[in-house]
Design a protein that fits this description.
Elements (H helix, E strand, L loop, with lengths): L7 E2 L4 E4 L4 E2 L3 E4 L2 E4 L3 E6 L4 E6 L11 E10 L2 E9 L9 E6 L20 E6 L6 E4 L6 E4 L10 E3 L2 E4 L4 E3 L13
Parallel strand pairs: 3-7, 10-12
Antiparallel strand pairs: 1-6, 2-5, 4-5, 6-7, 8-9, 8-11, 9-10, 11-12, 11-13, 14-15, 15-16
This protein binds zinc ion.
Zinc ion (ZN) binds next to loops.
């Protein structure tokens, strides 16, 4: 036995392969790979080569239909990765969760690339579309989308003005999928 700090698994997290371990509690096998079906501490019984997860019920985890607040962590043309920082109406998160926003899920209308809707470090509201990590997100509803963003040219906070997000310094509008709850409005 060691006193090593236990690793925490999220639903859908890959824990190992069948050649290495047999599945223990809360672990399922798919194509020879072992995944956690819950959030909790990973139990590794190295003597019996068995891996399981002890479910932790006292923490909030993202679930299907939840509205989450997140920050764009990385982005490419067709999708971006979102760090989930809070779930509306739930206890504070104790782990790190990330979601994926695909360009097809950004708006009700067609969006050419992800950069027409969000950019790095934008703060967004999004709906959780899957029960498993990495959580698929959607910002299509009117309440969802960018709630806070800074100018990609100068870093100034963007202000909601005449239906768009405007940089006062550059006198320029940035294209975004804006939430109805955008935080800074023109006064
Ligand atoms: Zn600017």
């Amino acid at each position: 036995m060691t006193n090593e700090k236990k690793k925490v698994a999220v639903p859908g997290e890959l824990l190992g392969v069948e050649e290495e371990y047999v599945p223990g509690n809360n672990v399922y096998v798919e194509d020879g790979e072992l995944y956690s079906n819950t959030y909790g501490a990973v139990d590794l019984d190295s003597q019996n080569k068995k891996i399981g997860v002890t479910a932790e019920n006292k923490v909030a985890i993202p679930e299907l239909g939840d509205i989450v607040e997140g920050v764009i962590a990385s982005a490419k043309e067709d999708s971006c990765s979102v760090t989930i920082v809070a779930i509306k109406g739930k206890k504070p998160l104790s782990g790190n969760f990330s979601g994926v926003l695909h360009v097809s899920q950004v708006a009700k209308s067609y969006v050419n690339t992800i950069f027409d809707a969000v950019n790095l470090n934008d703060r967004i509201l999004a709906k959780v579309m899957t029960s498993w990590a990495p959580y698929q997100l959607s910002t299509a509803d009117d309440d969802l989308g960018v709630i806070y963003a800074t100018c990609t040219r100068c870093g100034e906070e963007l202000v909601f003005k005449r239906g768009g997000l405007f940089c006062m310094r550059d006198k320029f509008f940035e294209r975004k999928k804006i939430s109805r709850s955008y935080l800074l409005k023109e006064v």
